[in-house]
From TrEMBL:
The lineage of its organism: unclassified sequences, metagenomes, ecological metagenomes. This is Secretion system C-terminal sorting domain-containing protein. InterPro entries: Secre_tail (IPR026444). It comes from bioreactor metagenome.
Length: 337
């Protein structure tokens, strides 16, 4: 499975046509190319390459926004590896906005009186909009390099120190997590290691209302810092990163850095605009007087309905927040069903 390492990954906004140019590392056993999504809700075989000339293997992904993983599984005894020459995909999510990086070796964090800050305020927010949420009785530790991890060198930058959370928290928890606002789609990277060898850490991402939930990193190691990335696809939101209490034991994590693109606040997550004059909503239906091409998206950005009908039936949608978008103009409207 891909979380053990050695995979190729990319983010798509929905349906995608994928092609892989590859050959087998060995003739016996031959290689195998597998694809899955972020939560491994499906695992499909793209192809079984031979050792000779590289060939193209294709796959059609049908679904909502996700990160896709392509990797050679260890499906039989021997070195069943694969040589990858090229990958193409449609509907790939572009990176939007400038990158903001929060380095926990910076003086702002290394000089922080964590216990005093969180006992008194529970939350510390940087000028660059990262909030560190405590629990009123400590919960965070500033960790210098130790005998397990001397430093993280990522893209030419050294990250020797970390902020440590010694145990994971429940999704509904209002303590011990990071949060920051984004203006829409955001490419997020983190450098982390597990607080424990067993259980290994798991990092989850959601918004302030827990209207979506996804895994950003799973099976992180204690003795090595690893980097993980994720693309949030959706409307403006405040995102939360938290170590998950997903198994018995102290499933905490050490954070070395967090970076995200498109960071910033907007006056209103979704504003009503000129086209709402002829798009009306009554809990169960949309009334589309001008028959414009509409998309209905859930809060994670996944498209759940496409229609240009005069009346769009919403009865089968679960309760929650949805975004109505005019495909041609890009105008949007938020509804609560």
């Amino acid at each position: 499975m891909p979380y053990g390492g050695r995979y190729l990954a990319f983010d798509v906004a929905g349906d995608s046509e994928i092609a892989v140019l590859a050959r087998s590392y060995n003739s016996s056993p031959a290689g195998k190319i597998v694809i899955t999504d972020h939560e491994e809700t499906f695992v499909d075989t793209i192809g079984r390459p031979t050792q000779g000339v590289a060939k193209w293997y294709t796959f059609s992904y049908f679904g909502g926004p996700t990160r896709l993983y392509i990797y050679p599984p260890r499906w039989t005894s021997g070195n069943c590896g694969v040589n990858f020459y090229a990958i193409t995909a449609t509907n790939v999510v572009p990176v939007e906005g400038e990158k903001t990086t929060w380095d926990f070796s910076d003086a702002e964090f290394s000089s922080m009186n964590l216990e005093g800050v969180f006992n008194n305020k529970q939350t510390y927010t940087t000028e660059s909009l990262l909030s560190v949420i405590g629990n009123g009785s400590y919960g965070w530790t500033y960790r210098a390099p130790d005998n397990r991890v001397a430093s993280l060198n990522y893209k030419g930058m050294q990250h020797p120190n970390s902020l440590e959370v010694p145990s994971g928290v429940a999704v509904s928890s209002d303590t011990r997590y990071f949060s920051f606002p984004v203006k829409g789609n955001s490419h997020i990277e983190v450098g982390v290691r597990s607080y424990n060898a067993t259980p290994m850490g798991k990092l989850i991402i959601t918004d302030n209302e827990n209207l979506f939930l996804d895994t950003l990193a799973k099976y992180t190691l204690r003795d090595y810092v690893t980097t993980h990335s994720y693309v949030y696809q959706g409307p403006p939101a405040t995102l939360k990163l938290m170590p998950s209490k997903w198994i018995d034991g102290n499933a905490g994590m050490n954070f070395y850095f967090i970076s995200a693109t498109n960071v910033g606040e907007v006056e209103s997550s979704i504003t009503e605009n000129k086209y709402t004059a002829f798009v009306k909503f009554n809990q169960n239906e949309l009334f589309n007087a001008n028959n414009v091409d509409l998309e209905v998206c859930d809060i994670s950005g996944q498209i759940v309905i496409r229609s240009n009908a005069a009346t769009v039936n919403l009865r089968n949608l679960t309760s929650g927040v949805y975004i109505i978008r005019d495909i041609k103009s890009g105008n949007t409207m938020k509804i609560l069903k």
